[in-house]
């Protein structure tokens, strides 16, 4: 059979939420992208349903929130089943309830409207990096037979059982699931709502929706994860539910059944030459507290602008490596908090003393804020070189309206400098004006608090510090004068033109 050929800059494997987010970001930065997706149509499966505060901010920064309307929100979350108020300063505190298929719809519409080439019904079969040192080749099988693709980069966004990871043999250390939660959406049952109820024999969760369907989740203490090739039978879930709660739900109608384990693995390298990994392809975790989807979307948001800038020939060689450095560190921390939560959640009587101590600790405001920052993604601070500043590497505190809204929507860098008229050149040269927009505004309305300690001496200019913001909203440089700004511009946006 003859093979069709296709050349592009980036081959994205997988049109799940992460691949779709990445495709949109790459197009925004001007890169050509082909997305391969083996499913003929988007999934309608009930999967993740939580968007955390930082994800809401990044969606807003690209003008995507309006498409979601006003989703239900809930300030209360949990840490290993122990109630935790997730509220932190910012426009989107708490958790926002959006079914994953809706998130995917919005991201797909955006990627398509920006010109991404999404090929559904195409399954990736082979990857070869031994082409010419500069390209990667992939073969997919689609409705018209084999398709040979050639690109500068391939990004694996193909989920927890990543085909790419298997083909490249990328090291993915960690452990498989030892314990699991069973879950089902069931119609026609009457059981009390339960939020992480710990009974003698296990953990039971039940939430009745407005349409009368109840989602049940159950874990029997001491049980181990079964080796599965598909979803569990409803009879198995009903049996475990009966043993744990004493209630019979077997007469209900199961609409969906699923199980998820506490596997915990992370790739050693998120970038291996011209193959990169994002989302569940890069890390496997239990979706506790709705962090899995959010972590993946933020991987894509970190990678998209960097890869696009690199492909424009504008970025320094180190820019792409910062993707691994930054996101691997964030992933490691999130996986650790998920593992800690799994211990608290699925452990039996032996974890009760630990839970009692935690229950006391989370009442301390500093502890609550720390955990909320971790789960919401608001506390992510990348290791960024430059003169020390309280904002360096952190996300610029997000406000609505945002002083850099237009530039961020366009995926550009921003120099917020209250002492400069709008659209004048960044201090240190005008050579970055094609990549960085200068805005004569403080980083926050009334943002005088953004002043590095010890820099407000008699010679320092008045008012808040200037701040250089990357397209993903993180601060690449901040200061009262221009010290280090040209170097930061060059480090993150390449040489001046
Ligand atoms: C059943 C289930 C329930 C979940 N429940 C929750 C939850 O309650 N809360 C939560 O936070 N998270 C949950 N998750 C996790 C969450 O859905 C994932 O973290 C999220 O989908 C990750 O997005 P992704 O784009 O990285 O991967 P995926 O969403 O898995 O997308 C990967 C895509 O790649 C495609 N693909 C795979 N191999 C190939 C190939 N060879 N060629 C072409 N395409 C390929 C797949 O078809 C898929 O569309 C759940 C996941 C599953 C599977």
UniProtKB/TrEMBL annotation:
Keywords: FAD, Flavoprotein
Coiled-coil intervals, chain numbering: none
One term of GO molecular function: FAD binding
PANTHER family: BINDING MONOOXYGENASE, PUTATIVE (JCVI)-RELATED, TRK SYSTEM POTASSIUM UPTAKE PROTEIN
Cofactor(s) the protein requires to work: FAD
Biased composition (Gly residues): 445-457
Name under which the protein is recorded: Oxidoreductase
Phylogenetic classification of the source organism: Bacteria, Bacillati, Actinomycetota, Actinomycetes, Kitasatosporales
Xref: Pfam families: FAD_binding_3, Rng_hyd_C
Region annotated Disordered, chain positions: 442-463
Domain FAD-binding: from-to ranges: 7-336
Top-level taxon of origin: Bacteria
